[in-house]
Each structure stands twice: as structure tokens, then as C-alpha cells.
């Protein structure tokens, strides 16, 4: 009841507002509709996009599947068959939207412009009707449920209740109640609880919404909707890559993907392929799996009550049957197709591919084809593959039998593994593998140690066998326990998968017991350690506990004994290995002195060379030899040396001596205060060393050997015992030396060796040279030079001077300038001639004496011309002479300075002048040569005139009228003219005519006297020609624009190519074509009285006449209902019409005779081509039909400027896309009217409330 009151109040208010403000009712209707549409568009933007995709799917089933795949529409989890979106504004049904309806508020109804003119009356009638009448009116106006949707597409026709309510305009929590029916008799209703799923058949449904009113429950129509149920379908082809499936429109169907069918059945055909049969089966739905049979036209049909998958099999008719043997634990693929039964077919004469994939835990050991093994199997990820030729026999049978085996890593239980501390980890792995792995029961049976990884349980997880746990960690090293848990992991390969197995083993040292056996009474001679060990090994064996000799490597035995002459205790140890245990034994042996020898490397070298090391060699090396060298130098001096730096006290004792043992004999000498020693004192030195060694070793034999050597040397060089020995040195001076060597190791019998060392004087590449050479042929020195000159000589070896050379002698002899004969060892430096002699006696070098003479005094120079008289012909280049100065030896000292004087002038204008530069011009010249410390010399130079005829040819030139000729640019060609004269001739170029008009004249030159005087014959001149050509000028007409009906602008032009435009003639621009209508016209340039000095280029322009812009205002019209329409007129504004023109505009109004406002339409299809509309009419001026009131007549055309059609106004039906859509109705610019309307509305509301309050009382 309250709702009824509110509706009445709203109706009265609206009516009063319309009446007072004179606002058209359609303005209110339009405003309400726009508000509702704006809310709906906000919620349906994404729905519209999805709907457009669904529309394209419906048109073509084949293309539909591809489109859905691209846009994410294939999900079968979405009951609406569309991508689900979140939010209340989303479209859960994925519906197809078309903009052919209007959405009005919360109800769906068509918009009929013809019915809106009576809204005020309709509101008034609603106050007096009951609810049933209201529902009937709504039902009559029911339309499609959405402004943009043509149909709803649902997977299997299913939709949830909440999704349906959302589509029907409800919002969360979806509390509305709805029902639907196909025939308006049998209705289904939404549930009050939960969110059930509803199923719809394809068809058109009526929808109603439940409304609770004061009188009860009413069902209001909210519209109709076409619903399409669709099913997902998938078609797969097997047996041929050429297979194709076509839909009922003969379009290829996408294979191996899902597409949608908007019907309860689907028809298709299958491409026939030669030599193939076709088998088609379908699965899915209540029919389960069934075989499909084509009709007479080859068409297959699928009936849907659920999603369906179709399988098309091409079965070859010319084939070979492939029979598969045991495949219980493997899958067999032929040509990448899984074989699900025992038999399959392949084509004749083809290589088909077989791939066998074992199940987990199994492997393919081999394959036979017709009982013959396949040798070319390839494996990848445990799958076996090979290729086989099918052959040429039709329907033959090939049997393929794979051998499938179960992989097993078999390990033995309760076995003992041999292990000992320090065992090689690889040996340990082998022990475990060979002991634990049961190869007979393991598959693969060819498994090896390289194929596995062996680990043990350390207490801190599985670890490698050589794992060393950190101290404090609760883990143990392998072998620390009596038993160990072992894990063996097979790595696998392309044929076999990895395997693992575990077992527990016992740990025990299972190696063979050993014993070392040493023979008794062993005596060996002292020698090197390796030699003695090899000799001892002859008396030692390693045996087991039963006395059997073991095959051990005796070189690995360890010996421990005091290796010195005498009886010693020997201990021999065997360390054992991974097969045998260790053992040790001890015995007493006798060591006797060994034999030794000393060899001396006798050598002869030249002074400056070094002796080849070693000079003394002991054998064995540890016998240690010392060498004593004595001799006489080339200067007659005695010499002795010995090197004791490499011999230690231990070397002499043959054993380790405390404190002094590692010191050399030279260090012992310094500690004993023996800084120097003579040859005869050597036995005394070694006696002191015996005192240091003590009883550990007896070196008497060494001392005796040294005394024997000294006695020998004393006989060779008497008095040598008193010569001081050079410690640690070798002789370096030229001389002859005796070298004696003695072994000093007490473990060896003393040995002596003697040899000779010779150092010869150096003479190869050794020569005497003067300290300074005299740098002239006659060895002449001035007295001043002699004072600083370095007289005397020296030895040079290989070109290098040797300093401090003894034995060099210098002698001088000669005659002074006064005739005195002189001689001596000092150089003579007064004027005279002398002889200097250099020689050498004794020392380390041998060289031939050298001799030279030298003179002390001054010398004079002379000058000579290369040619005394020189002749030349004039060629423009310099011609000169050459003279040189020479000393007394004829040596060229340098070029003399020259001065030239012309003594035979060729011109009276030139006076004789001396010049140091070589002359160029013709003439006779006196030439004077000058040099220091020499008398001057005179020569003659003659330059004759050029004889050949000279020619000058002037080049031609061309300029444009008004351009100045650059004379420097004129090229001249010459013949027999010197290069230096060309520039002088070039400077005389001149024109013989004027440059003021086009034409030609001569270009000439003049030969200057400075040029002609050097030529015997007159120079010939050939003139050139200067040509002046006309100048190009371009005159371009300026393009311009004008509006139709207006006066043309003044025609102008542009000139380019010249700066002086006054002499070009009379220039004008004229229009080529007649006419003033819209278009483009050519403008031509014309020139009268043209100047002959110019070449004219005349370029045209254009005149563009644009359309005349006008504005058309449609006149408002009014008539009384039932009377004839007045003529429709309009007013032309803007630039206006050109006199005599017609626009060609036609006016009409919207049809209808009810009271109200009607749009007036303007047809411009025949608009005059010379005009264009500046803007569309505003649409505010309407044609109005009013009720008949006193004094109201048809409105007339009051404006004399208005135009009419001249025909009866026609009622025209609006068509989509016409310009009428741009015309708006109503006038909203009435604020005073609105204010009055609001006041009257408030008064009406107060009156109604008061009336109802009185009624209740």
C-alpha cells in the first residue's frame, strides 16, 4: 500500500512539472533511460567482448574450435562454456552480446519512441489501475533480457542458480525468485536454498520475476532469451597422416583438439584414401562406445547427450600384418602408435619404426623378428628402437618378440670381506664386489665394478669407503666394526635402469702369513747402497708359514744396518700388501773395504778458456777424490792448488762423525787456524782430521796415499813442497801443470791417479794494436795534434782491447825537420818523420810486432772545376758549374763557393752583376771558385738562346649574359715555351670586345720582352674566342584559392634566376579555362616584349575554388491536432547563397499525429556541389502537434529568408545509420521553469498526504 502511495505521489509530481515547465515528456523518458543504460554498460563491458567471440564461434563449427582455443573458451569446467571472471560486473555465462535492445532500470523492455509521447497520460492512468493491469502492460512490452545479448550459450545447457540470477539482473546475495518456461504453461522455478544446477534445452524461454505486493505474490515478465546448449567434441585420426574429416559445410575439422557443437547432433564425412578402409567409433554419453556407419552420401552422424570423442581409423587393405609377442611388461609402438592388441597392420614396401618401452623395473634384453635376432637395436631411456622393412607380400605376417626381463641386483648374505688398515680403496671395492655380487642371478649379468658405486653405513648416512669422519662426529671409519652394512648402486645406462641393493658383511684380515729368511755368514764388499742392497737380496727370501717362497717384489724390502766396514747387524722388513701380511728378520753380516779408482781428465786449453769439469773423478763416487795441481807458468813461476770445499769429514771417515762430520775440509782448516798451507804440510792436515774422527774410522791409508803423491810431484818439480797452495782454485795463467788425485773415503782402498793440464798462450784472434790511429793517408799530425795524441799499443782479442797486459814494449826512431837522427821509448812530437814499433815478450798472449811511420807538420789545399767551360741552351732552368777543394793527398775536402758575372749581356737594360746563384737567362758568365787555404780558380759558363719556334694558343671561354669573365680562368696552351715564362704570358690575357650583350669576340695575349729575349725566333700567338650565351630566367605563377561566389584574388607570380627584373618585358598571369564553379583551374604566365638576352621558362600555377560554407537553421513549426501540416522551412546563414543558386535540401518530419514534438529531418543527398554545410542543424527546433484551443492556428513561415521544400511534408520512417540519429529533442535550458515545477510538486505532495491522513482518521 505504501508503494502505491509513493507511485501516486511520483506520478502527480511528474505531471505537474511537465505542465508548468513545458518540458517535453520525452526528455524525462530519455534521461531515465540514459541513467539506467549507463549503470548496465558499466557491468557488461567485458560481457560484450566475450559475446562477440561466442557469436563468431556459432557461425562456423570448424573455425569455432580454433577461435575458442585462442581466447581460452575450451574449459569444460565452466558450465557456461566461457572464461569465468570475478566480480559482480562479470558475465559468467560467456554470452553473445548484440546491441539491438535497450536496458531500462531493473526491468527489460523495448524502447519505442512512438509510444513515449504520452508518458504524462500513462503516469496518470497508472494511478487508477490495479496490479494485474500493470503486469499486463509490462508483459506486452517484454523484450530480450540484455541490451547487447542475442542468446546464451551453455555447456550441456547447464548453469548454476547464482549464475542464472546474475544474468537475470540479480546481485549478491541473489535473493530474487525467478521462473522460466518455453510455452508459458509449464514453469520451472529457482530454489530457495543452495546453488543447484539447472539444465536447459536449446530454445526460446520466457522469464518472470516474483514480486510481493500488498495484494499477494505476482509474477512479472522480464523478457525472453534464446538459449543454446552446446557439447564438446574431439575427433582423432589414426593410421594415416593424410586423413581428413569434413563438417557438413565441407570444411576441414581441426583434429586432436576440442571444439563446441551447438546442437544435439553433428554430421561429418571422412576423406577416402586409396588402399585404406575406414573405421569410425564414438565414445561418450549414454550410448557408450559405438561404431558409426555412414549414410548413402558418406555422412556420419553423432547424437549428443554428453561430450563425445570420435576415433577415425584408416586400416590399410594392402598391408603386412605385424604380430607382437610377449608384451606383458612393455609397451610396443609402431610408427609412434601404441599397439593395444597383438596384431596391427603396416603398409607394403615401407620401413616401419618399432619402439619398445619396458615398464619400471624391467628391461629389453633383445628382440627377435620371425625368430631372428635384431642386431641393430638402439636404446634411449631404456626403450629399444629399430627399423624393419615390411616386404612386398600382401597380408604376410611378421612376428616381433621382445625379450623383457626384470632387472635384479642380487647380493650374497653373511659373507666375509677381507680388509686391513691401509688397504687401497680400489682393492677394497674389488674385494666387496667380487665377494658380494651374485652375477649369476643379477640382470644385467655383465655388470662390472666400473658400473657400480659402493658405500657403507657410517652411522652418519651412506659414505664412500675412504670416508674419514671428523673427530667428535658420531660416525665410524670403514673397518672399525666387525660387520659393515654395504649398499651397492648400479649406475644404469641407456638399456638398463639404475638399481640398488643392501647387505651386511663381516670384516676380517684374510691375508697370508709371511716370514723373512736371511742366510747365515754373509760377507760383502763395501759399495754404494744400491749395489750392496742388490747383493744382499741374493741371500734373502719371503716365505709363507709352510716354507713356500712367495712371489713378492723383493725390491720393496726395507734394510736397516750400519753401512761401514766391519761386522754389522742387518734387519730386513717386509711391509706386506693386500694379499700378504708383514714380517721382519735380523742377522749379522761382514763388510770389507771396497775397491775404488781415480781418473784425471788431462786437458789442453788456451789462455782465457776454462777446464772441463770434473778434472778428478772417483769411482764409486762416494769414494771421494781430492786433487792436487802443481806446475810452472809461462812467466816461470811455480804454482800449486787444491779444492777441499766438496769433501766433508764424513766423506773421509766413511760414516757419520758428530759436530765436525758435515763440515768441509776447508772449514776444518779455518777452525784449526790453518789459513794457508804449503804442499809439504798436507799429510799434517789429514793427521789432524784423524784426531777429529777418532776411533770411528782409520784413515791411515788416505794419509799414505797423499804422501806418495807429494813425493811424485817433488821429483817432477823440485822445491814444490815449499810452494803455498791456492785453496779452492784452478790454474788460469798460461803454463804446464801436473794433476794428482787421491780417494779419501776410509771405506775404500786408497786409489791414486795422475794427469797433465796445459794452458797455452793465446794467439788466435790475438793481435797488437796502436792506442790511436792517425786519420790520413800520409800519417801527418800537426804539432798541436801530436801533443794530445795517444802513442803506444795494446793487445786485442777478438777486436776487444785487453787491459794490464804484461810484456808489451814500444820503441821510436826517426829524423827531425832539422835533419837530426833520434831514437827512444818515448814518442817524438817536433816536426820531422818517425817510426813507431810495438812488440810483446812472454805472458799469456803471443802476437806479431806492428810498425808505423808518422809525420809532424802542415799541408796546402787546391781547387778544381769539373769542367772549365760549360755550354747550355736556355730552357727556363738554372745552369751552373761545380768545383771542389782537395788536400795534398788528393782527398776531396768539399765543394767550393762560386760567383757568377754576365760578361756578355743580351739586353741593354741589364748591367753586369755578380751573383752566387746559378743563372737562368741567356748570356756568357765568368765563374770564380773560392775555398779556405786554397787559391781561387776561374771558369766560363755560356747559355745560348732557345732555338725552337715557341707557340702560345689561347683557349676559348663561355659566360652567361650578365656574368663577368674571369681572365685567370682562361687556359693557354704552349709549345717550346719554358715553364717560368708561361705565368708572365698568362698575366697579359685580355678581351678584345664588350660583355654587355650575347655574342663572341677575341681573347689575346702579349709576349713580354723579358720572355722574348731568351728565344732566338719570335713567339707565335694564336687567339681564343669569348662567347656570351643567353641567361635562363624562370617565371612561376603563384597558386591561390577562392571561395565559390567570392571575387578572385589578384594573380601574382615569382621570378627566379635573375636579380635585375626590370628588363624582362611585360609579365602577366591569366586564367586558362572559363568557369566559376568549385574546382581547380590553370593559371598561365605570359610575357610580352621579351629581352633577347634571356631564355624564358614559364611555369603555370593553379586557382582552387572551394565550396561555399553555409549554415542551415530549421524553422520551428506547429499545428493543431487533426489539421494539415504547414510547409517545412529553413533559414540559410553563414556566407549565404549566391544569387540565382538553389541548395537542393529536402525537409521532412517524423511520422505521427498524436500531440507532442516530432523531429524534423533534413535530406542533403542532392545538396548543390558548390556548397557545404559548416555544421549540422542543432535539432532543437521541432514540429509540434497541440490540442485544439481557441485562437490556435497553423504556424506560418514568418521569415522571408526561410526556404521550403515546395511540396507536402512527408512522414518518413527512421532507418538505422541516418543523420536523424544526431537530432536531439527537447529544450532543457529552462531553470525558472524547473524551480516553479519543484514548488508546485511540493505543494501537491503536502495536499495528498494531508488528504490520506484525514481519510485514515
Automatic annotation (TrEMBL):
Biased composition (Low complexity): 126-137
Bias-annotated ranges (Polar residues): 38-88, 103-117, 1191-1210
Top-level taxon of the source organism: Bacteria
Key words, A-Z: Membrane, Signal, Transmembrane, Transmembrane helix
Organism: Dorea formicigenerans
Record has Transmembrane as a keyword: yes
Signal peptide segment: 1-29
Family annotation (InterPro entries): MBG_2
Disordered: annotated span: 38-148, 1190-1215
Name of protein: MBG domain-containing protein
Pfam families in the cross-refs: MBG_2
Domain MBG: 1033-1104, 1110-1174
This protein's record includes keyword Transmembrane: yes
Amino acid at each position: 500500500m505504501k508503494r502505491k502511495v509513493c507511485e501516486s505521489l511520483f506520478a502527480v509530481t511528474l505531471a505537474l512539472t511537465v505542465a508548468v515547465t513545458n518540458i517535453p515528456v520525452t526528455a524525462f523518458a530519455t534521461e531515465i533511460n540514459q541513467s539506467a543504460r549507463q549503470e548496465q554498460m558499466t557491468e557488461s563491458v567485458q560481457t560484450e567482448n566475450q559475446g562477440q567471440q561466442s557469436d563468431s564461434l556459432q557461425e562456423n563449427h570448424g573455425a569455432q574450435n580454433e577461435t575458442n582455443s585462442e581466447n581460452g573458451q575450451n574449459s569444460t569446467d565452466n558450465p557456461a562454456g566461457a572464461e569465468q571472471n570475478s566480480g559482480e560486473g562479470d558475465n559468467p555465462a560467456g554470452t553473445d552480446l548484440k546491441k539491438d535492445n535497450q536496458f531500462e532500470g531493473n526491468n527489460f523492455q523495448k524502447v519505442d519512441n512512438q509510444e513515449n509521447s504520452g508518458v504524462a497520460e500513462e503516469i496518470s492512468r497508472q494511478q487508477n489501475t490495479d496490479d494485474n493491469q500493470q503486469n499486463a502492460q509490462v508483459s506486452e512490452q517484454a523484450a530480450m533480457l540484455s541490451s547487447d545479448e542475442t542468446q546464451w550459450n551453455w555447456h550441456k545447457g547447464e548453469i548454476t542458480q547464482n549464475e542464472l540470477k546474475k544474468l537475470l539482473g540479480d546481485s549478491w546475495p541473489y535473493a530474487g525468485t525467478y521462473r522460466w518456461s518455453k510455452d508459458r504453461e509449464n514453469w520451472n522455478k529457482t530454489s530457495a536454498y543452495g546453488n543447484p544446477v539447472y539444465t536447459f534445452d536449446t530454445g526460446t524461454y520466457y522469464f518472470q520475476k516474483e514480486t510481493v505486493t500488498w495484494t499477494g505474490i505476482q509474477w512479472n515478465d522480464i523478457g525472453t532469451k534464446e538459449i543454446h546448449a552446446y557439447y564438446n567434441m574431439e575427433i582423432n585420426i589414426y593410421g594415416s597422416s593424410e586423413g581428413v574429416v569434413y563438417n557438413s559445410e565441407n570444411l576441414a575439422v581441426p583434429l586432436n583438439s576440442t571444439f563446441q557443437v551447438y546442437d544435439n547432433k553433428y554430421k561429418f564425412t571422412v576423406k577416402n584414401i586409396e588402399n585404406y578402409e575406414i573405421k569410425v567409433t564414438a565414445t561418450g554419453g549414454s550410448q557408450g562406445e559405438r561404431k558409426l556407419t555412414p549414410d548413402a552420401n558418406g555422412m556420419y552422424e553423432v547424437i549428443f547427450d554428453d561430450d563425445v570423442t570420435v576415433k577415425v581409423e584408416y586400416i590399410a587393405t594392402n598391408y603386412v600384418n605385424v604380430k607382437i609377442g610377449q608384451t606383458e611388461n612393455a609397451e610396443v609402438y609402431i610408427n609412434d602408435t601404441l599397439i593395444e592388441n597383438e596384431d596391427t597392420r603396416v603398409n607394403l614396401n615401407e620401413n616401419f619404426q618399432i619402439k619398445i618401452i619396458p615398464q619400471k623395473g624391467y628391461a629389453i634384453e633383445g628382440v627377435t623378428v620371425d625368430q631372428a635376432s635384431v642386431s641393430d637395436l638402439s636404446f634411449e631411456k631404456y626403450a629399444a628402437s629399430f627399423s624393419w622393412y615390411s616386404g612386398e607380400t600382401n597380408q604376410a605376417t611378421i612376428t616381433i618378440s621382445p625379450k623383457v626381463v626384470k632387472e635384479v641386483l642380487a647380493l650374497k648374505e653373511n659373507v666375509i670381506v677381507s680388509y686391513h688398515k691401509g688397504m687401497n680403496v680400489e682393492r677394497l671395492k674389488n674385494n666387496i664386489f667380487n665377494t658380494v655380487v651374485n652375477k649369476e642371478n643379477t640382470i644385467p649379468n655383465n655388470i662390472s665394478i666400473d658400473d657400480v658405486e659402493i658405500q657403507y653405513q657410517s652411522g652418519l648416512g651412506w659414505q664412500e669407503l675412504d670416508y674419514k669422519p671428523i673427530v667428535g662426529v658420531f660416525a665410524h671409519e670403514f673397518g672399525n666394526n666387525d660387520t659393515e652394512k654395504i649398499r651397492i648402486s648400479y649406475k644404469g645406462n641407456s638399456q638398463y635402469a639404475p638399481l640398488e641393493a643392501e647387505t651386511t658383511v663381516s670384516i676380517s684380515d684374510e691375508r697370508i702369513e709371511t716370514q723373512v729368511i736371511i742366510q747365515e755368514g754373509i760377507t760383502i764388499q763395501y759399495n754404494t747402497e744400491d749395489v750392496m742392497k742388490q747383493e744382499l737380496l741374493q741371500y734373502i727370501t719371503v716365505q709363507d708359514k709352510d716354507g713356500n717362497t712367495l712371489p713378492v717384489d723383493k725390491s720393496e724390502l726395507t734394510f736397516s744396518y750400519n753401512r761401514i766396514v766391519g761386522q754389522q747387524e742387518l734387519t730386513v722388513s717386509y711391509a706386506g700388501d693386500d694379499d700378504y701380511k708383514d714380517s721382519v728378520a735380523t742377522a749379522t753380516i761382514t763388510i770389507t773395504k771396497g775397491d775404488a779408482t781415480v781418473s784425471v781428465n788431462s786437458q789442453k786449453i788456451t789462455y782465457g778458456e776454462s777446464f772441463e769439469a770434473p778434472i778428478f773423478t772417483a769411482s764409486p763416487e762416494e769414494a771421494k777424490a781430492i786433487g792436487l795441481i802443481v806446475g810452472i807458468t809461462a812467466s816461470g813461476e811455480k804454482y800449486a792448488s787444491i779444492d777441499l770445499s766438496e769433501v766433508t769429514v764424513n766423506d773421509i771417515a766413511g760414516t757419520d762423525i758428530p759436530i765436525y762430520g758435515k763440515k768441509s775440509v776447508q772449514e776444518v782448516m779455518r777452525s784449526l787456524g790453518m789459513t794457508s798451507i804449503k804442499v809439504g804440510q798436507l799429510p799434517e792436515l789429514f793427521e789432524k782430521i784423524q784426531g777429529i774422527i777418532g776411533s770411528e774410522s782409520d784413515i791411515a791409508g788416505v794419509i799414505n796415499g797423499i804422501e806418495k803423491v807429494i813425493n811424485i810431484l817433488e821429483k817432477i818439480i823440485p822445491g814444490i813442497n815449499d810452494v803455498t797452495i791456492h785453496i779452492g782454485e784452478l790454474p788460469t795463467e798460461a803454463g804446464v801443470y801436473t794433476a794428482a788425485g787421491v780417494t779419501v773415503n776410509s771405506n775404500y782402498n786408497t786409489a791414486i791417479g795422475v794427469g797433465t793440464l796445459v794452458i797455452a798462450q793465446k794467439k788466435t784472434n790475438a793481435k797488437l794494436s796502436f792506442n790511436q790511429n792517425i786519420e790520413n793517408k800520409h800519417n801527418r799530425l800537426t804539432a798541436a795534434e801530436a801533443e794530445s795524441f795517444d802513442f803506444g799499443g795494446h793487445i786485442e782479442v777478438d777486436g776487444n782491447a785487453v787491459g794490464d797486459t804484461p810484456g808489451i814494449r814500444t820503441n821510436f826512431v826517426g829524423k827531425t825537420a832539422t835533419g837530426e837522427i833520434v831514437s827512444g821509448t818515448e814518442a817524438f812530437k817536433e816536426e820531422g818523420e818517425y817510426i813507431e814499433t810495438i812488440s810483446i815478450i812472454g805472458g799469456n798472449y803471443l802476437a806479431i810486432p806492428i810498425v808505423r811511420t808518422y809525420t809532424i807538420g802542415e799541408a796546402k789545399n787546391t781547387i778544381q772545376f769539373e769542367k772549365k767551360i760549360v755550354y747550355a741552351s736556355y730552357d727556363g732552368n738554372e745552369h751552373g758549374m761545380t768545383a771542389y777543394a782537395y788536400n795534398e793527398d788528393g782527398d776531396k775536402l768539399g765543394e767550393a763557393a762560386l760567383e757568377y758575372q754576365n760578361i756578355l749581356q743580351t739586353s741593354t737594360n741589364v748591367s753586369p752583376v755578380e751573383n752566387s746563384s746559378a743563372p737562368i737567362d741567356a748570356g756568357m758568365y765568368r765563374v770564380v771558385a773560392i775555398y779556405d787555404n786554397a787559391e781561387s780558380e776561374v771558369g766560363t759558363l755560356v747559355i745560348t738562346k732557345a732555338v725552337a719556334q715557341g707557340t702560345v694558343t689561347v683557349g676559348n671561354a663561355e659566360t652567361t649574359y650578365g656574368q663577368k669573365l674571369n681572365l685567370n680562368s682562361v687556359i693557354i696552351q704552349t709549345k717550346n715555351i719554358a715553364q717560368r715564362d708561361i705565368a708572365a704570358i698568362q698575366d697579359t690575357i685580355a678581351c678584345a670586345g664588350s660583355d654587355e650583350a650575347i655574342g663572341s669576340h677575341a681573347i689575346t695575349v702579349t709576349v713580354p720582352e723579358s720572355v722574348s729575349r731568351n728565344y732566338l725566333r719570335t713567339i707565335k700567338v694564336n687567339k681564343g674566342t669569348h662567347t656570351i650565351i643567353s641567361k635562363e630566367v624562370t617565371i612561376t605563377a603563384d597558386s591561390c584559392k577562392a571561395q565559390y561566389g567570392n571575387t578572385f584574388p589578384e594573380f601574382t607570380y615569382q621570378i627566379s634566376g635573375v636579380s635585375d627584373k626590370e628588363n624582362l618585358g611585360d609579365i602577366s598571369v591569366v586564367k586558362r579555362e572559363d568557369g566559376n564553379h568549385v574546382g581547380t583551374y590553370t593559371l598561365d604566365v605570359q610575357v610580352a616584349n621579351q629581352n633577347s638576352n634571356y631564355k624564358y621558362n614559364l611555369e603555370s600555377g593553379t586557382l582552387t575554388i572551394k565550396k561555399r560554407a553555409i549554415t542551415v537553421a530549421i524553422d520551428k513549426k506547429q499545428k493543431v491536432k487533426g489539421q494539415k501540416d504547414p510547409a517545412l522551412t529553413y533559414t540559410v546563414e553563414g556566407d549565404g547563397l549566391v544569387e540565382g543558386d538553389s541548395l537542393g535540401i529536402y525537409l521532412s518530419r517524423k511520422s505521427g499525429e498524436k500531440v507532442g514534438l516530432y523531429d524534423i529531418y533534413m535530406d542533403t543527398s542532392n545538396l548543390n556541389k558548390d556548397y557545404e554545410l559548416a555544421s549540422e542543424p542543432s535539432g532543437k527546433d521541432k514540429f509540434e502537434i497541440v490540442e485544439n484551443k481557441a485562437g490556435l492556428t497553423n504556424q506560418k513561415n514568418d521569415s522571408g529568408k526561410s526556404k521550403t521544400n515546395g511540396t507536402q511534408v512527408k512522414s518518413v520512417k527512421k532507418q538505422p545509420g541516418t543523420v536523424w540519429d544526431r537530432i536531439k529533442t527537447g529544450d532543457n535550458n529552462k531553470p525558472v521553469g524547473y524551480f516553479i515545477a519543484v514548488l508546485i510538486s511540493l505543494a501537491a505532495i503536502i495536499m495528498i498526504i494531508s488528504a490520506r491522513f484525514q481519510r485514515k482518521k
